[in-house]
Amino acid sequence: MYEDRWSSRRVVQLRPHLWRHLELRLRDARVLEIGSGLRPTAPTRGSFFVESSPRALRALAAAGGRGVQTGGWKLPFRDGAFDAVFALELLEHVEEDERLLSEIVRVLRPGGTALVSVPLHMSLWSAIDDACAHVRRYEPEELLEKIRGAGLSPEGYTTRPAQVRPALARFGTGFMSAFPRLSNWWLQHVVFPIASAWARRFGRVRWAAPDRPAPEGAGGMTVLATKRG
């Protein structure tokens, strides 16, 4: 399913507002993004990528990225190899999420930047989570505790609202099952490019302090953290 998703060769920067917010901080930095597919947050040219999809790696390479194929949580890089590591909408797919967080910290230099995003609240579990092969959704404090336990100090977080009602989720997954090629084309050529353009034009980032409770109704969380030491 994951390999078929990247039948398109078009790379679209999905969260340009996040990168714009971090751009000065990460100027000339060695940036690694894990599991981005063709929807990276880091600019493709010059960034490093770890991916399980050969199709995605070929498209990222054609756009100027440098990629390594791997399907597990072990990262094939030396200790302290990167100034920043991004893992966006990834941990919820990984059984051994704490081991992957430890690997992220291992390949970060001291003082390096980590950016992690996940969906929130098992109470919001829907058919879309099943269709996307999610293992879990996180509680906000659970995620922050795991990040701290891995050796990172959270600087702040931002949230997004829950977006899909259960009935709409069932309809969407049913449509994807019945018309996989059409729904994938629609996502890759219409939905994601529009989302990217909207974020580029209107997206803003406002970080909340990590000791501040997440707002009610949050459906996802992005955490900015720094490697201790």
Textual characterization of the structure:
The protein has 229 residues and is α/β, with parallel strands linked by helices. The chain has one domain: Rossmann fold, CATH 3.40.50. 36% of the residues lie in helices and 22% in strands. It contains 8 helices and 7 strands; from the N terminus they run H-H-E-E-H-E-E-H-E-H-H-E-H-H-E. The protein has helices at 2-5, 16-22, 54-62, 97-107, 127-131, 140-149, 166-178, 180-202; strands spanning 31-34, 48-51, 66-69, 82-88, 108-119, 152-161, 218-227. The chain has a 7-stranded mixed β-sheet with strand order 3-2-1-4-5-7-6, sandwiched between helices. Helix 3 links the parallel strand 2 and strand 3. Helix 7 (166-178) packs across helix 8. The protein is globular.
CATH topology: Rossmann fold
Return the CATH architecture. 3-Layer(aba) Sandwich
Q: What is the number of beta strands?
A: 7
Strand content: 15-25%
Taken in chain order, the helices and strands follow as HHEEHEEHEHHEHHE
Summarize the amount of helix as a percent range. 25-40%
Q: Spans of 5+ residues with little confidence (pLDDT < 50)?
A: none
How are the strands ordered across the major sheet?
3-2-1-4-5-7-6
Structural class: alpha/beta
Arithmetic mean of pLDDT = 91
Shape category: globular
Largest sheet: 7 strands, mixed
